[in-house]
Amino acid sequence: MNQQSPLLDANEITKRFSGITALDSVNLDVAEHEIVGLIGPNGAGKTTFFNCLLGMLRPDDGEVLFNGQDITKLPVYKRARLGFGRTFQRIELFSGLTVREHLLIAERVRRGDGRLWKDFLNLAKTRPEESAAAEATLELLELTDVADAPVESLSLGKGRLVELGRALMTEPKLLLLDEPSSGLDQVETRALTDVLRVVNRQRGTAILLVEHDVEMVQSVAQRLYVLDFGVLIASGLTDEVLADKAVRAAYIGDIAVSS
Amino acid sequence: MANFLNLSAQGVAQGAIYALIAMGLVLTYKTSGVFNLAFSAQAFIAGAVFYWLNVDEGAPLLLAFIIAVFVVSPLLGLLLDRAIFRYMRTAPWSVKLVSALGLMLGLPQIILLPAVLGPELQSNPPNLASIVGISQDYVFKAGDFAIGIERIIAVVVSLLAVIGLGILFRYSSIGLQMRAVVESPRMVELAGVDADRVSAYSWMLSSFMAGLAGVLLAPIITSVNPATYILIIVPAVVVACFGRLSSIPLTLAGGIAFGLLEKLIGSDLLTNGFGMSSDLVSKLQVSLPFIVLLLLLLFLPGLRTRREAQDPLSGVDPPPPSLAASYKDASTQRLTKIIFPIFVGTFVVVSLFWLSGIWVNRLTAGLVWTIIFLSITVFTGLGGQISLGQTAFALTGAFAVGQLIDHLGMPILLAMVIGALIAAALGALVALPALRLDGLYLTLATLGFALMMGTLIFQDPTISKQPTGFVLNRPLLWGNIDVFGWFTIHRDFFRTDDGFFVLTLGVFAIVAVGVILVRTGTTGRSLLAVRGSATAAASIGINSARLRVVLFAIAAAIAATGGTMYGMLIQNTPDPNGTEFQAIVGAFWVVLVVTVGARTVDGAANAGLSFVLTAWLIESQRLPASLQIIGFGFGAIAYAKHPEGVVEWQTRRGIQDRARNAAEKARVAGLKARGLIPAHFNTRDIGLSAAPFGLYALYWLADGIYNAQVPSLKVLGVAFLICLPFGLGPALKAIRGDGESRRLSLILLVISPISIYVIFWLFTAIAKGNPPNVKWFEAACAASAAYGVYWFTRNFRDMRAETGRGLGAVGGFLLALASVVSATAGFFLVKDNLFVGLALGLIACPIFFVLCREIDLMTTAVTRQDRINRYTGFGLTFMVLFMIYLRKLQFGDIQPEVLGTRILVFAAIGAYMQFLIGAQSVLNDYWLSSVEEARDPAEERPGEAFASLDASQPVPAGAMGSVELAGEGT
Ligand SMILES: Nc1ncnc2c1ncn2[C@@H]1O[C@H](COP(=O)(O)OP(=O)(O)OP(=O)(O)O)[C@@H](O)[C@H]1O
Ligand SMILES: [Mg+2]
């Protein structure tokens, strides 16, 4: 928090679904280059919070600032172009397309080069630098050998990696990851953790990580927020938060129950 | 005031019927996920049966009513559910919708065929009053208030039906289950309701409601014909939407309210009260349902966000398999690159220099339709949405061009470009309010849009210059062009048939290349992304709203270009009320293109050309023109199995066949190397044994048709001698297999030449006007049928038991086919009665299907299923063509030398040969399996060997999505 204004600044986000308050005045900020964890028991409102940040849901109250700009009213795709990338808890891939096509589309959209007249003049072919970028991401995520497979044929874990790759291709400033390690085994989780570190260090991408795997969060996140029934019950440096009694009661207890 | 009351009473009567239909719609939508636009067809059929029984056949009113409504309608519903929609429960919405559209168009035409019922439908049938002893023309009067008995009946019966429905829902267990499904699909999942049963009952019930509505409507509406009934369904859709597709009371209220609104708008309320012109009011009245539909869709929030009744399994729509082109290996690709230009070149040269003017014209028409259909390729094949409104854009283009020429004297080609741009702008404008609609609701909105344009805008003479339309002259060149002194292109070149063909080809090429570029470009890929997952697409920054607008605009521009070209073809703007460009025809276009193939340009080209050519073929055979609609309408059902379209599916299969043949060769080589089969064995032996017969038969048939002569038996004997060594070989070798395979080889050997001979002998005998000895023939039919049945029953039991029995199944199938074909033919000749023939055909068809299903189930290997599909298809085609041919010849409707007839006959022979080859290939497979099994049980099963071959192919994405498709996809 060396900067005067954080990269992402969510203020007093409130979201109600008929009856229940899924988010109750949640404040959260992420600085540039930072990895922040967001944990909480099932149904705490983490995914809802992500949806409010990116505009898939409209919060009933509160505002979202990105790089100091108020983006609360922007549609999803504009926010994405500002520098958000995200993965989904329930995996969302483009059915019917191959892994490489996923990455190439994301790359093309990032370049903002989708004019219709270019299609008509046959200027829309994949350019060498686009393929190179896709290739690099494939290698980073170790997806090279399935690059030309349709995504339906992939395992859940690989599917999550494709989602991550697709998000990375848009060169986001902030990456929102919703339980990226679910569906991965331990080895894969460790590999994923390494990838996140590399991305964070080399590209300077800030990451907001929702995760049930506390160990994983602990190993990468500098700071941690804890959400319980839509209320932020703790925030601060990772180790301090995890030592907190209330957090252990709300969260660790939940793990014992759920596993 | 009295007028007001009278109109209200009429409105209530009409509204009660709307409510009835709407409830039927909701019932099937909720229980099976099918938004059943074919409802109008069901209603029409009941109406037509009622009419036919009572008016044409003189049956008592009550009897006609009971048969039409209580017998025919529920049975039709049951049939639709069992035969079609039950298998679509997990299919995506688009598949269900297209199937329903196909039935909407095809079903009514079947009833209208003279051979089926062929009611005259001259006037309206009587109403039901006399059943309860009231006069037909009774009018209830109270002061100035008067209402005809037919409307009283409509109100009373509809309300009774609705109340009866309420009671059924309340007090019977199946009713409760249905209501549970209608009102809360999720509850039903929890309660473990038998979905099959609920679905069957609700289809029967809803069909009963359709029938009731159909019979009640028949005396009221202007005329009893399919189009009127289709138009009735639009208000019903409005009412169903008003009831938010679930609430029964709201639906009833909405129905009555809408009925009232419709009548009251026609009263002098608007003209006197608001000073509108009566012309405008009458137009408003006609287009009211469409306007209200659009408004409801756009502004009723509960509707848009409603989750559709879905099977949990349908959560993941199986994505379409990759384009066939992606399966090509390098050598095939090279081959395509050479063959394609040759093909196009030949096509052009042959068309220009060899074909007569009328044929050039037909091909030109085919190309014009192709251009129009390309708009569906973009909208549906690429965008994944279905638009029933493309007629409106085509007409917009043509009228805009007409205006530009009339007012600005613009050259027509320039006007065509600007017309396309105007249509594109209109498309974008339409897309904007519809941005938040998706899937079914978007489709309904496009339907509303097209109908509204048709009734409100295109009727306006200032816009469309109706009734004559604008003259659209083909362009002139700037002068005579001298090409290097070789020849001169005259100034009016484009006004000749040949010249216009060239022009159309050019426009088609430009549009087609544009479509391909969009598909492979960023826009196409983004569209695919949005189609795959709209949420994820937005999360990487794709603006799906802009894409949707672009999609509408491109599709509209293409349709407009096609519309203008069509105008130039007939040298006049198309008639918005004609059979070609009526609003409702948009549904037919979609059904046609989607069935043939919506994803590629060749799909559209095939659709366009087959649209023109089938029409011609049917006409040349003096068959009813409606056969085309019936054929394509029912073809839509194939879409459920092959969402990528027939053309794509066939292309892919052709490519894969090459790989498969190579694999079979390798397999045989392996077996030979291990000494399991003799070194000289050739898997094509059996096929070859039939080939000389095929060639001979072709020659002989052509000869027979030209000269009307029966070829001599000597030639047949020679053919037999040629075939013998080929056929005898495998038959002897088959002894190494088990008893069944040996038996089957022999049967095939004997049956193929003999059946070919018998059939062609028949052809020529009839052609010569020299019918064969009937007694002899009957005896042969009986024997063959008896043997077929014997085989069939003997093997049917065992078939389920184990895969090895498949051989028996194939044999039984072959014999059943042979006997059915010859028996059918026999009846044609003997009884001189089409009805008996048709009945036999109808009996034969289920036998086919049952057999094929059984074989399908039994053989798990992908390849086998594929082959069986093939030879069933061809066998059926053969039978149908053969039947048509025989009947036509017999009744002297056609001359054998007519081109269409010859094509028909050659198609039949081709189908028959394919059938034999397919059967033989399956046989080979079984035989090789039995060899492998008998000699080397430890070896992996051959079926698996094939399966693994297929796995090594690039797997089409669809195959992963659902088990259904896995058997078909490769
Ligand atoms: N669209 C919706 N409509 C109604 N309620 C919703 C909706 N989305 C989420 N909720 C409710 O909001 C609450 C928060 O849900 P959310 O999915 O955000 O939790 P989560 O923290 O992501 O849980 P998990 O760890 O299971 O992913 C839950 O009680 C959920 O039922
Ligand atoms: Mg969540």
Explain this structure.
The complex is a heterodimer of chains A (259) and B (970). Chain A is α/β, with parallel strands linked by helices and 259 residues long. In chain A, 41% of the residues lie in helices and 23% in strands. Chain A contains ten helices and ten strands. Chain A has a six-stranded mixed beta sheet, sandwiched between helices. Chain A has a four-stranded antiparallel beta sheet with strand order 2-1-4-5, covered by helices on one side. In chain A, strand 1 (8-17) and strand 2 form a beta hairpin. In chain A, helix 3 (99-111) runs parallel beside helix 6 (156-169). The longest helix of chain A has 18 residues, at 186-203. Chain A starts with 7 loop residues before the first strand and ends with a helix. In chain A, 47% of the residues are buried. The model of chain A is unreliable at 255-259 (pLDDT under 50). Chain B has 970 residues and is an all-alpha fold. Chain B folds into three domains: 2-289, no CATH class; 362-578, no CATH class; 683-934. Helix content of chain B is 74%, strand content 1%. Chain B has 39 helices and four strands. Chain B has a two-stranded antiparallel sheet. In chain B, helix 15 (357-382) crosses helix 24 and helix 15 crosses helix 25. The longest helix of chain B has 37 residues, at 899-935. The termini of chain B are far apart. The relative contact order of chain B is 0.07. The chains are: A alpha/beta (259), B mainly alpha (970). At the A-B interface, helix 2, strand 6, helix 3, helix 4 and helix 6 of A face helix 20, helix 21, helix 22, helix 23 and helix 38 of B. Magnesium ion (MG) is lined by residues 46-47, 89, 178 of chain A.
